[in-house]
Write a structure and sequence with these properties.
InterPro entries: aa-tRNA-synth_II, aa-tRNA-synth_II/BPL/LPL, Phe-tRNA-synth_IIc_asu, Phe-tRNA_ligase_II_N, Phe_tRNA_ligase_alpha1_bac, Phenylalanyl-tRNA_Synthase, tRNA-bd_arm. This protein is an alpha+beta fold. The chain has eleven helices and ten strands. Bound molecules: phenylalanine (PHE).
Length: 337
């Protein structure tokens, strides 16, 4: 009986099986109970022996049952633990962290400087009308200076803006003839250019406009000089050269002293010591007038700079195409700025 019970217990796969074995051998209808019940019929001599034997067998079975239950429980716990194991020494998944695009970073840096000089930041549409992109800037249809900016026309009257200057006209209109207007406007512009190391059919500009009573050329020079010193470094200076834009009179080209040779002449500045960085001038009276400002009462200056150029010069990048080709080896270098 004992070996039979132990054999069955061995086969038991779970606690339910163990319980079945218990009921079968130790239960009320089991053989041990039966033996104990039949004790009354035995002689006084046999009784203690049989009783002892039955109790021993019961004790043994009970003990094995408990053991089996314990080992089943342990097995189950081990299984559960194995399933829940976390290997804290495994290397984690690296979360790739992005960074600001260098052009965004440069725009924000330039914005900060001009905000510090009292300018506010505004924006205008990239799809522009012929009126704002050209006419309101003193560039009537058939004006030869339109050729300075080969354009992407969408319809006869709509084009991708070739410059951020249309925002000058849009902003002045909103002010309804009353100054001051003191804004900068960053944004994308488009020209029909063949892409190479220094040209791109799409690039970024930052426009500046300051219109008020008694604004003079010296204000333009002072603001631009302060800006260049903040952006490139205190040791840098600027010079103005006469130039032409239809919407400014007089117009100037602004050069900054070379940062590589310190102005003494090198390959970077083509031996001149100076690098051209932006176009500017006093807002043409006709432009003021078309946008609702009385040129007898108000005057102003405007400037426009190429963002890529400012980034190239400050960070020593040799090819404008790096900004648009999304090469991670290039982009990953900008985490610090
Ligand atoms: N819009 C001119 C350009 O794209 C730059 C400019 C802006 C010049 C404002 C003068 C005043 O070349």
């Amino acid at each position: 009986l004992l070996s039979e019970a132990l054999e069955e217990l061995n086969q038991a796969a779970d606690k339910k099986d163990v319980e079945k074995v218990r009921v079968k051998y130790l239960g009320k209808k089991g053989p041990i109970t039966e033996v104990l019940r039949g004790m009354g019929k035995l002689s006084a001599e046999e009784r203690p022996k049989v009783g002892q034997a039955a109790n021993d067998v019961r004790g043994e079975i009970q003990e094995k049952l408990d053991e089996k239950n314990q080992s089943l429980e342990a097995e189950e716990l081990n299984k559960q633990l194995a399933g829940e194991t976390i290997d804290v020494t495994l290397p984690g998944d690296t979360v790739k962290q992005g960074s600001r695009h260098p052009l965004t970073a440069v725009v924000e840096e330039i914005e900060d400087i001009f905000i510090g000089l009292g300018f506010s930041v505004t924006e205008g549409p990239e799809i522009e009308t012929d009126y704002y992109n050209f006419e309101a800037l003193n560039l009537p249809k058939e004006h030869p200076a339109r050729d300075m900016q080969d354009s992407f026309f969408i319809t006869e009257d709509l084009l991708l803006r070739t410059q951020t200057s249309p925002v000058q006209a849009r902003t002045m209109e909103k002010h309804e003839g009353r100054g001051p207007v003191k804004i900068i406007c960053p944004g994308k512009v488009y020209r029909r250019d063949d892409d190479d190391a220094t040209h791109s059919h799409q690039f970024m500009q930052i426009e500046g406009l300051y219109v008020d009573k008694n604004i003079r050329m010296s204000d333009l020079k002072g603001i631009l000089e302060a800006f260049v010193k903040k952006y490139f470094g205190e040791e840098r200076t600027i010079r103005l050269r006469p130039s032409f834009f239809p919407f400014t009179e007089p117009s100037v080209e602004v050069d900054v002293t070379c940062g590589i040779c310190g102005g003494s002449g090198c390959r970077m500045c083509k031996q001149s010591g100076w690098i051209e960085v932006l176009g500017a001038g006093m807002v043409h009276p006709k432009v003021l007038e078309m946008s609702g400002f009385d040129p007898e009462e108000y005057s102003g200056f405007a400037f426009g700079m190429g963002v890529e150029r400012f980034a190239l010069l400050k960070y020593g990048i040799d090819d404008i195409r790096h900004f648009y080709t999304n090469d991670m080896r290039f982009l990953n270098q900008w985490k610090q700025i």
